[in-house]
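ping. complex inputs:
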Amino acid sequence: MRLLVTGKEGQVVTAIKQQAADKGIEIVTLGRPEADLADPESLYAPVIEAKPDVIVSAAAYTAVDKAESEAEIAEAVNGKAPGVLARAAKALNVPILHISTDYVFAGDKTDFYVESDETGPTSVYGLTKLHGEQAVAAETDNHVVLRTAWVYSPFGNNFVKTMLRLSETRDELNVVADQQGCPTSALEIARAVLEIAERVSSDADPKLRGIFHLTAQGEANWAQFAQAIFKGQQERGGKAMTVNPIPSSQYPTPAKRPANSRLSGDKLAVAYGIKLDPWEKSLDECLTALFSNK
Ligand SMILES: NC(=O)c1ccc[n+]([C@@H]2O[C@H](COP(=O)([O-])OP(=O)(O)OC[C@H]3O[C@@H](n4cnc5c(N)ncnc54)[C@H](OP(=O)(O)O)[C@@H]3O)[C@@H](O)[C@H]2O)c1
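pong. complex structure:
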């Protein structure tokens, strides 16, 4: 199987590349400098030329706060480019897997969000990602939208690596405690993406198409997530840290984030039999990888 994945050095694409090698899956990446998602139409020809069996739309403009002042670029990359990829998928008669986000939701639900819940993004990033989902669905029925959340990994930039870096110079940190979500490892996302890609490349069942939530089991707020990271650091011989839980009002950011963006994975479990590990277990795997490089 040949997979075309957008992005080159992103967390999810890197995890996909790593794991595909072990499974004998061929990966073609499409990203900068050759391909710029901010110029969506330029993507069509190289995708057609690559003749993939499945397209994975993993790249995105992920700078949530910066997107507030770069709405046009964010819209091109997140809102428009996925539609062009989906049009190419339709022309090639292959499925497209598109990675989306929990930030398509407003955050005012008290329970976990399910796929059929009404969307209501509170940020430019969330709105442009919602447009991307819609653009994909408008081009082809042969799509799988995978909404994930709070992505971290041993690669790139993410909350886990930021916390570990800050702990090198600080003994305590104030961390927001009034946003609830599902921290999800890119390693887990990659495993699921490869499994889903294999399924949809050979199974045309409509029940395998549509929107699915792909997040780790369990829930946390950012302060609890930070506490777990530092507990893992200490267990590996690193220093102890104090985390002071604070409200979002004490940590103002340009983008407003949902207070609750916990996603239910039940639909994915029923359709595909895929359930990601509890986030604490995946965090342990990520910390082990990070500390083995130290
Ligand atoms: N990170 C999260 O917390 C989070 C949460 C929910 C959903 N998601 C979604 O999960 C997916 C994967 O995210 P991630 O964490 O792997 O992101 P990431 O680590 O920030 O990587 C983003 C990737 O997109 C590429 N990219 C961005 N703008 C581009 C452009 N104009 N042209 C070409 N490539 C471009 C980047 O390329 P360069 O290396 O050249 O910059 C990079 O490879 C995205 O769809 C994201 O929206 C992420």
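The mean pLDDT is 97.
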